[in-house]
Amino acid sequence: MTTEDDLEEWLESELQSELDETEESELEDWILSEKVKSLYQRQHPTTLDRRSYMKSLLRLQSELIKLQDWVIHSGEKVVVLFEGRDSAGKGGAIKRIVQRLNPRVVRVVALSAPTEREQSQWYFQRYVPHLPGKGEIVLFDRSWYNRAGVERVMGFADEGQVEQFFQDVPEFERMLVRSGIRLTKYWFSITDEEQQLRFLIRIHDPLKQWKLSPMDLESRVRWERYTLAKEEMFARTNIDEAPWFIVPGNDKRRARLNCMHHLLGRVPYTDVPHDEVVLPERKFNANYERQILPRELYVPGRY
User: Fold this and answer.
1) Backbone CA torsion sign across 140, 95, 133, 76
2) What pTM was computed for the model?
């Protein structure tokens, strides 16, 4: 039988495993050459220390679990858009938000380039099937605002299509809000110098080179065109029903925490009452004998 001491030791082991997983997730930002790491640290001398960051991260993640429970309990529908410059930290923020949440409740949508059939459809059509139902949260890692940004700057949409988008999107988002969706739009902002540094890090880090696409490299060349496109997008789509919120992203740790804290404040969640969970006693069958399975069914123990 399991004793109280055994249970306490097991729980402590599980907690340490959770912390190790979080630490492993954070360490990916620091697997860099010494030269690049030194350059990064010179550029970010006042970043949050790891202990303060981890403490705040875990506290905010525990609040996000409460928000998730409230969304399920109340049948709310939540949509969060994450937009911004390439390498601005959208993906990192999304990863920390969903890290401890139920993937059946909280979904991340990151669509690939539209197919030929999708290009012939109403522009918003391919996004609609991903909108949440009752008791769901959907995070869009880039969204319909591709038309105002990358599609416009890279020439995938002509000015007539862009103008039609600007005319349509305010009413589209008002329709979402009227349908009961809580819509929040974030723009992650970084400086020209910071983007250049992050691209250099990706070039020198074999674990992150996959993040650097030809489109990302071209975005460096067209920095000012992206700036002009962003400014017009804000001017024409920052509506009362769905305003934009800018997240300063030069400091990744602060950007993640600030975004999480702000998102929690956007939803009026409350604690949801839960029935006490009681672990039932295991039933034993005196006539059952566990069969010995062939060794070839097991994954080899290489580590």
Assistant:
1) negative
2) 0.86
